[in-house]
Amino acid sequence: MKDKKIQWHPGFVAAMNLEFAQDRTGLIFEKEYNLNTKPLEVDLLVIKKEASMKITNEIGNLFKGHNIMEYKSPEDGLDIDAFYKAGAYAGLYKSYGDTSDAIKADDVTVSLVREVKPKGLFRYFREHNYMVSNPYHGIYYVEGAVLFPTQIIVTRELDEAAHVWLGALSERMEKQGMVRLLESVGRLSEKADKEFADSVLEVSIGANRNVIEELMGDDNMCQALMEIMESQLLLKENEWREEGRKEGRKEGRKEGRKEGRKEGRVEGTVDTLRDFDYEDAQIKKAIMKKYSLSEEEAEAYL
């Protein structure tokens, strides 16, 4: 398979929407929030609609009214300079209120999210007398020379069952973790949740192709994977139909009808697997199992 750049940050934003799904109606999510000029932007800004609301997920226990979240992918480091940079972003955000002191300093928090614990940064904390507490698995509060309440979230240390979505943002997922992710996706019923899950799934599958290949060799898990992909295709089918209605284009209406048929879904599955750079032999095996096709019928779709 060809190497394909993984879009970690959109996956992170989607994962946080799912992590806070229980309280999402009381929150505002601003992804890639610009701080005055384009080069200065935070990965995710989470604003409480009501300051008094309590967030169920323990990641949100530190949250105030305005919450800066910075995500570090497996390709990114997290050292003391990155730590201060996140704090500086929070300071800029506080200073850009509509009027003087419109955003109170004690109403801003900073969260840095990374899969692996940054040992060098924690060593710096010890050497420079920062106070670090660990109230929950994978969550570290940092006190001392910080302007705002700050936490570091180490996703690998979080409870795996409770934090499926953040745990999926990894290049080191094992078969059990991928199965848990697929089962969690399969239980979703809301359209928005399914769309967020699609973003997380795209990252996880792209980063863990060896695990997916192993699952594709398991008849039961291959079937589950195909069913999840089919549900995503149905979402796209509805989007195509709506686009066809809105724009009134013949091509859009034709595409909507086509995707409503079995042939359209098979073709959509083939396209989806190709997006993940699967080879024809693997795709043929998958669609033969999912759609009960003969080898000759499957080859016609390739």
Give the key terms.
49% helix; 2 domains; elongated; 302 residues; alpha/beta
Give a quick rundown of the structure.
With 302 residues, the protein is α/β, with parallel strands linked by helices. Helices cover 49% and strands 17% of the residues. Strand 1 (27-35) and strand 2 (37-48) form a beta hairpin.
Secondary-structure map with pairings?
Layout: H1 8-19, E1 27-35, E2 37-48, E3 66-72, H2 80-95, E4 108-114, H3 119-127, E5 131-136, E6 139-143, E7 150-154, H4 164-167, H5 175-187, H6 191-207, H7 209-216, H8 219-247, H9 250-259, H10 262-275, H11 280-291, H12 295-299
Parallel strand pairs: 3-4, 4-7
Antiparallel strand pairs: 1-2, 2-3, 5-6, 6-7
Helix pairs in contact: 1-6, 5-6, 5-8, 8-9, 8-10, 8-11, 10-11
